[in-house]
Amino acid sequence: MNIVAFFRHGQAGRIGYLAAMLYDFFHTNIRQARERAGLSQEELADGIGVGRTTIVSLETGKTRLFNKNIPGIAGYLGISLEELVCGAPAGALLQDELSWAEREHALVEEYEQRIQILQDKLDDAYRLNKALQDNVDSLSSSHSYLLEQLRKDQ
User: Fold this and answer.
1) What rounded mean pLDDT belongs to the chain?
2) Considering just the CA atoms, what is the radius of gyration of the chain in Å?
3) CATH number of 1-95
């Protein structure tokens, strides 16, 4: 859903969209905190005693945010839970409303870029499918013509 669609949907649609953005925001913060610490997913996983796929799932949103490993990750990275999940300490979050607006704007831009990339890939797939169908049609036509010529020759 792009920002135009966001405003076209009713309040329930907007709330769902914002909830999805916020959920993604939390998972993005987890990845950014790991990267700021200079750790790979595997290094962080080894540090807290889980598999790398657990970290991948947390960072991509495939695992609930209220995962039992979140406090361990924060502790291993040496930051607070608030900083891990929200990207800043709790006090800063309460004081900096502009930061939230900037983050929301950045998240919307990121989503729009992701959507455009997916749309470009979909367009490429449609073009490839069309080219393949044209090839199949051409080969089928050639096949029919050749069969017709063979029948005439017999």
Assistant:
1) 79
2) 25
3) 1.10.260.40
Placement of tokens 């039992």 in the chain: 68
Could you read off the pLDDT of 80-93 as tens digits, one per residue? 887 887 776 555 54
Do the beta carbons of residue 110 and residue 101 sit within 8 Å? no
- Which residue bears the tokens 């914002």? 18
Report residue 40: phi and psi, to 5°: -80, 170
Structure tokens at 89: 């300490």
Domain boundaries, the chain: 1-95, 97-154
Contacts from 108-113 at CB under 8 Å and sequence distance 24+?
Answer: 108/3, 108/21, 111/1, 111/2, 111/21, 111/24, 112/2, 112/3
